Amino acid sequence: MTDFKRSDITLANWRSAPFSQWAFQNVSEIVPSAVIPAKGLSEESPLNLGGLEDLQVTGIAGAGQSLKEFLTASETDELVVMRDGRTVAEWSAGHSNPARPHIIFSVSKSLTALLAGILAGKGLLSFSKRVVDYVPEVAGSAYADASVQQLFDMEISVDFVEDYLDTSGGFDRYRRATGWNPDRPESPAPDLKGFICSIGKGGWQHGEKHAYRSPNTDLAGIVLERAAGGRLATLFSEHLWQAMGARSNAMITVDRVGTARAAGGMSATARDLALTGELVRKQGAGLIPQSFVDDLWTGGSRDAWKNGDQTTLFPDGSYRNYWYETGAGELAAIGIHGQWIWVDPASQTVIVKLSSQALPVDAVLDQAIVGVLRQVSRATSL
């Protein structure tokens, strides 16, 4: 921390620059968090960009610049590049610590889906069942007649607006329910499950369009807990984190009664996230059912994607089990404020980019990042 003290960082400002540079790697000091234990720590190689040191990329606004210049300009905290399962390049900003878990926001959704795939492969979860079969409390809500698969594909009709900058409406109330924002004594929010069960249905039918709404994944986390009979942090640790050989503990934020924020509350190191991307690149590597990973590439319903609200991100892409299929041969897990896992089987490359971007969503910067991720994937110097 340079221009501010720890005491300056509060529940009201922790996602705002410049405080986010520190807060995004220390979320557990601000929001109650459950630990996702790894097996143990291991020695790490020194950080360097390796063969990418001299790579020139087309950066923001089409400007040519070095990869390092782009990383700085795009407010990157951590970068890890793997090629054929081997870490070939790393970079860390001066204020960042690669050994500390970094919040990954909606990349949490994609990891939740991988856990779901593992549980389904073990016969503990069925995507064809209704959500209400696992969580009876959703009867009477938007989710009462939805399937688990629709939940994981973001094809649920809900009367809810995903507005990250909301300070007084439904999204603010949602964030207060998660424990991410200070509550309002004059209008207190319920706990997270109570909030989800209060959401009504939207003006369309489930399955008609892709509607990106974060409460869907928080409910998916509850579904997994009910299906497998354990808390989400424990399930992650037992079935994914330790099984894949994660080097560091991860964390996930919880609300005031301990419900995990599966939609965006996980923190992990870039190095461990690269391992999860490598699982996907290797078709599950014997841990995640290959059929589940193969299905990510189908992208779910193309019609629902084209009718949805994210088509400008990947016009020819689609969405399946909380992963983006780009339409050009890659898969991506994406979180606000600049969090990415990029999987490119053609070049055997996995890239993790963690950031503390000032804006939650920056469509122009997103397109520049996609372009740079593709240039890094195709770099022959690796």
Q: Average pLDDT value?
A: 95
Separation, N- and C-terminal Cα atoms: 33 Å
CATH homolog superfamily: DD-peptidase/beta-lactamase superfamily
Radius of gyration: 20 Å
The helix-and-strand class reads alpha+beta
CATH topology: Beta-lactamase
Largest sheet: 7 strands, antiparallel
The CATH class is Alpha Beta
Can you tell me about this structure?
The chain has a single domain, classed as DD-peptidase/beta-lactamase superfamily (Beta-lactamase, 3-Layer(aba) Sandwich), CATH 3.40.710.10. Helices cover 30% and strands 15% of the residues. The protein is built from 13 helices and 13 strands. Strand 12 and strand 13 form a beta hairpin. Helix 3 packs across helix 9.
SSE layout:
Blueprint: H1 20-23, E1 33-36, E2 56-58, E3 64-66, H2 67-73, E4 76-83, E5 86-92, E6 102-103, H3 107-121, H4 131-134, H5 148-152, H6 170-178, H7 192-196, H8 215-228, H9 232-241, E7 250-253, E8 266-268, H10 270-281, H11 290-296, H12 302-306, E9 318-320, E10 323-325, E11 331-335, E12 339-344, E13 349-355, H13 363-378
Antiparallel strand pairs: 1-7, 2-3, 4-5, 4-13, 6-8, 7-8, 9-10, 10-11, 11-12, 12-13
Helix pairs in contact: 3-8, 3-9
